[in-house]
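Morning run. Coffee first, then this:
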Amino acid sequence: MHVYALVGKSGTGKSFRSALIMDKFNITHMIDDGLLIRKDKIIAGRSAKREDAYLAAVKTAIFADRSHRENVMQALKSDNVKSLLILGTSDKMITRITETLDLPSPTRIIRIEEIATEDEIQ
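And here it is:
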């Protein structure tokens, strides 16, 4: 499996820009805020955005809950994922997700600043 990462602070447009990265590198799946997504369809996971508390959202986004983690890991296998884009707020978050889901380290880490201007990020 080829893993790529898109890193940027919250609210910088990672989700919006992810389609460009996926097209450019021919990536089929994405992990964003606790969800495994193929094209525009959620195939597994639970959204961190639905959590009421900040800490609960972070735990969801990094797959801290065993049943959530196992659900996504099973979907990664059953969907035969060959390429994956992981969205995160830091390199540390990306590492935490790849280790938790037993994924390879990213082939490439792309910073939001590489693909969007400062005005677009604002």
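The helical segments are 14-25, 54-61, 66-78, 91-100, 112-115, 118-121. Good start to the day.
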